[in-house]
Amino acid sequence: MQDLTPELTRTFAALSDPVRMATVARLAEGPLSVGELSKPFSLSPAGFSKHLSVLQSAGLVTKQLDGRRHICSLQAEPLHAAFDWLAFYQKFWSDNLDGLERFLEESRDHDIKKKKRK
After folding, report:
1. Can you give the pTM of this predicted structure?
2. Structural domain of 78
3. Number of folded domains that form the chain
4. Which residue numbers delimit the HTH arsR-type domain (predicted)?
């Protein structure tokens, strides 16, 4: 079993909200100001700021001051860790489902041979 570290837990918690997932997706295309990021959402500035804070706490987003604008950028490292964690379980389930498929095929073949003998 792979360890679920506090950092990984924060990453998954941050990505569990549709606003934050959409924000990460938009930042994957490049840095944006807080104002640009918040436009598609019907949230108050304070409400959107809370979502950004969660993303920053998870290490997914950084903010830099550019004059009076706060520019947000995506930090991919936590996403890589989440991908690695998910990939482990993808292999686990893939291997188990492959084994189940082989078992079912063997059972079917066995049943067919049994019927032919009758």
Report:
1. 0.73
2. 1-118
3. 1
4. 1-94
